[in-house]
Amino acid sequence: MSERRAVTASMSRYAILGCGSVGHAVAEELDAQGKDVLILDKDESRVEALRDQDLNARHADIRDTEAAEAVADHDVVLVLSSDVEANKAAVGAIREGGGEQFVVARASDPVSGEELAELGADIVINPSEVIAESALRAVETGELEHKAEQLAAAIEATDGRMAIVTHDNPSPDSIASAVALAAIAEKLGVDSEIVYFGDIGHQENRAFANLLDVDLVGLEGPSALAAYDTVALVDHSTADSAVEHDVDVYIDHFEPEVELEAGFRDVRTNVSATSTILTKYIQEFDVKPTEEIATALLYGIRDETLDFKRDTTPADLTAAAYLYPFANHDTLEQVESPSMSPETLDVLAEAIQNREVQGSHLVSNAGFVRDRDALAQAAQHLLDLEGITSTAVFGIADDTIHLAARSKDIRMNIGNVLGKAFEDSGEAAGHSTQATVEIPLGIFTGIETSTDNRETLLSLADEAVKAKLFDAMGVESGNGS
Fold it and tell me: pTM of the prediction?
């Protein structure tokens, strides 16, 4: 957009140069809105027809300087002739005459669009592109409406209760998506419970659930879901979150890592958060977001996109903009700054002490840990160190080496790095910016696990893990700080 002028609500004088079918439609709409509209066109019969509709139309060739002079006192000029050469002449005449109006001009292709912009058009439109964009929006709207009908049918088929299952050790995106789906189920008259397997270990995630008063039900054992008539999985793609039960609803922004059949399925890999998908659904179901729902979904989007710094799509931003006025921003601040537990502080201190840095990559051994979720928090904190673009922190718990990694290096997919480094010895899961891996300790070190061998195990694990990681990252271990 040109810096000469911007359209404001106070502007009310419009001029349309060239009134074919597009210009005619625009003129009628502006007139219906009560705008002061002047139309200039060289076709005398068209001008007469416009006047018969009580529109202010005059006969003029938009190529002539007289046309530019006629619209000199108008705030907005729309140059909409189907003759692109005439449009270029009109825009050029307006600007050469010193006109500072806000000018919208019609092009026929990218080349003519660039030419019109160079001549001084503030906005250039190409009808074929506008039609294509409108068609895509219509398809998207229709598809969402169709999906919503299918989702409603799947939920309403529930005879008893519906279980809304997050992934194991649920994240904010998973919890928020479940909260939104529960609100939809409530509107449809179906009882539901948000359930999970594992633990809510990360302090920020615990704070998230507590502050928003989310009622989460912990389950144990593969048969626990048998008590529910309908099972819905939200943000559930990781392999370690597989369920041994028929799935009625599956909604995620990742394809599942294990083969999964579902009665209703909505996977959108073109967005960065499942919370974005559920925001669209609560709009489609006309569920006005409560403060708790809006705060949860907004935080789910922010957390999944690293506060809009990672893989953020227009859909994520649109959803966040919709939720923003309804959310409690004081609660968001509390969630983002939870107090650190003594265990997490100990793990972070150990990781700082034992860090080894090669280039911009940091790997550290936190020793024997009780809270494995503290490893992820330590990896995230260490990523803030100057010059560091990727971190990996590992520790030993329950005869297993647990490793959490984080990266802000756009050239590196940390999930692929862990998969490559431990493809023969562990189970890796994650994506480009965060990942985890679990390695059976005895297999990895080749010796028995016992209290007497603790220091030996730790030493062997330290040496082997760092060597494998740095090798996968493309650097050599051994002389870091």
Answer: 0.61
